[in-house]
């Protein structure tokens, strides 16, 4: 695959007062794959996303297609088509699902199209409602949605801005098993035409939905490849054995569905 339209991170470095949080990380993500960034607590995953989205200053290079993102303002990075979610969903709780989507879509509208938009539901909003499974909840105040539905609304709020890349920080944290499955399937649908990069601690979720994985450890890339490759990497096993506790280790080493797993009791590996 060419790198046109891909997200390419090269030698990314982020320091906080001399502390190297990300020390020369390179990876790429293409439309058509669900790309995962995993690693123990403090590995530098969120900092990578912060640097890509302009929230933290970094050196090296982050390119979306031909466009360099490092040194670009947060607002311009959004306008260039990079959306992100945070660990806690940030929706307007008093407003309905539709109103939340309308506001998110408004961020990208001209004043004229804002006036036009008032006359009906825009196609981008309709398709975000459908894609996220929230069509029947359009009038529901966001505050009374389930935890999973709030996360999907936040994803919908990115989709209405028609992003080229979606970066998701721990999207399934706190979700039920059914919500995790629905979220994995949603991400796979979204990834058919867009770049999807997921930071996640849930190893079972990663094993089920990742196309490719990059493992970070102490601000550097420890391993990279398909799920099976990364699971078989002794360096990865050592880091998870050494730092992340038995649950994550067992989940990390478990083999994908259909084969005999090393444990059948672990479905949600936690990083802490
Ligand atoms: N604003 C900041 N100032 C100082 N240090 C920071 C800052 N943000 C992150 N760090 C440090 O950088 C390192 C990487 O943090 P980061 O949040 O990127 O890790 P992470 O892999 O996302 O971890 P977690 O899974 O716990 O969210 C940590 O040691 C963290 O304490």
Automatic annotation (TrEMBL):
GO terms for cellular component: plasma membrane. CDD domains: ABC_Mj1267_LivG_branched (cd03219). One of its GO terms (molecular function) is ATP binding. Pfam families: ABC_tran (PF00005), BCA_ABC_TP_C (PF12399). Keywords: ATP-binding, Nucleotide-binding, Transport. InterPro entries: AAA+_ATPase (IPR003593), ABC_AA/LPS_Transport (IPR051120), ABC_transporter-like_ATP-bd (IPR003439), ABC_transptr_urea_ATP-bd_UrtD (IPR017781), BCA_ABC_TP_C (IPR032823), P-loop_NTPase (IPR027417). Residues 7-243 form the ABC transporter domain. This is Urea ABC transporter ATP-binding protein UrtD. It comes from Agromyces albus.
